[in-house]
Specification:
The protein is mainly alpha-helical. Helices cover about 80% and strands about 0% of the residues. The protein is elongated and about 125 Å long.
Length: about 350
């Protein structure tokens, strides 16, 4: 009887202990397997760090990147290079220059010729410079290319300044001509070139004319577009200047026996140019800034040179230097035209 009771008790205890043992083994075996698992490889650490970065967990990413060990002798160490450069970039983005420099020097200690690390170290050293020293350093770097572009800008300005007043004069004379077809043709020229954007005209000349078999190089296309556009604007200024001359001047010239051509050449036009110097000055100052539009047709002038260097270095100083050059050019032209105005007596002394 006692033996049967003992056996029954053992059966009941076994019925309870066996499920508990199964549950314990189900929990303990994976834990033991994880405990015995080998440490993560550098590639796995970098992969986990990338995942943390994509999830926005910057602290976890830093910890994982920092866990990547330096390569042993004979190993390539690509994962270590990647991890340390990522840490350097993250510190650079947080403006932690000391940490960024430390990570970069870790890279250079193993890979002394790494170009990316050298470039970032140079950027860190430049960021520590005083503002005025950095500005001087940027000037030495950017000014040669900007000055080369400035020469092209000045070429465009001077050629347009020489050609467009002559073209504008002929268009203005045609506009006031009594020969109706010529007057209409000149009016049409002014209407088209004053009524459409200069940028569109440059696009049409450089990209549109090849469709009909006329191909121009960027410099020729730029000069043609600027000269045609400014000839139309100056034509209206000249026409207004001619018509502002008192009719008595023309009648007096006729009384002296002058022909129409002589009257225009010796009486009307000399007085006209004295009166139109101020609006001419405004147009030519606008021309200096409008030359920036030719950068859209592959002309490397001042604005294009500045844009290329800004895209290469992402340094706003280059735009500042370009603005200074434009300001210097317009200032010289403004002072020159004011001197010319005083010389020809546009304004009477009171």
């Amino acid at each position: 009887m006692h033996t049967r009771a003992t056996r029954d008790a053992m059966k009941r205890s076994g019925a309870v202990l066996v499920p508990l043992l199964i549950v314990f083994l189900w929990w303990a075996l994976p834990l033991a397997a994880n405990t015995a698992k080998a440490p993560a490889s550098p590639a796995e650490l970098v992969g986990d760090a990338k995942t943390a970065l994509n999830q926005g967990d910057m602290d976890a990413a830093r910890e994982l990147f920092s866990s990547v060990p330096a390569p042993a002798e004979g190993e390539r160490g690509g994962t270590y290079l990647y991890a340390r450069m990522q840490l350097a970039r993250m510190a650079w983005a947080d403006t932690d220059l000391d940490a960024a420099e430390a990570y970069v020097r870790d890279v250079l200690a193993v890979f002394p010729e790494n170009i990316e690390a050298k470039t970032l170290l140079r950027s860190i050293e430049e960021a520590r410079l005083p503002a005025w020293k950095k500005l001087l350093q940027d000037a030495r770097r950017f000014m040669p290319s900007l000055l080369h572009g400035t020469l092209m800008t000045l070429l465009l300005v001077f050629v347009t300044m020489l050609v467009s007043p002559v073209g504008g004069l002929f268009i203005a004379l045609g506009r006031i001509s009594r020969f109706k077809p010529l007057s209409t043709l000149c009016w049409l020229d002014i209407w088209i070139f004053r009524g459409t954007p200069l940028l569109l005209q440059l696009f049409f000349i450089y990209y549109g004319l090849p469709a009909i078999g006329i191909t121009l190089d960027p410099l020729t296309a730029a000069l043609l577009g600027l000269c045609l556009n400014y000839s139309a604007y100056l034509a209206e200024i000249i026409r207004a200047g001619i018509q502002s001359i008192d009719d008595g001047q023309t009648e007096a010239a006729k009384a002296l026996g002058m022909t129409y051509r002589q009257t225009m050449r010796r009486v009307i036009i000399p007085q006209t140019y004295k009166r139109i110097i101020p609006p001419f000055a405004n147009e030519f100052i606008a021309l200096i800034k409008d030359t920036a539009l030719v950068s859209t047709i592959a002309m490397v002038e001042l604005m294009r040179a500045a844009d290329q260097m800004f895209n290469a270095y992402f340094n706003v100083s280059v735009l500042f230097f370009a603005a200074l050059i434009y300001l210097a050019i317009t200032t010289v032209f403004t002072v020159t035209f004011e001197w010319v105005e005083r010389r020809v007596g546009v304004y009477e002394r009171r």
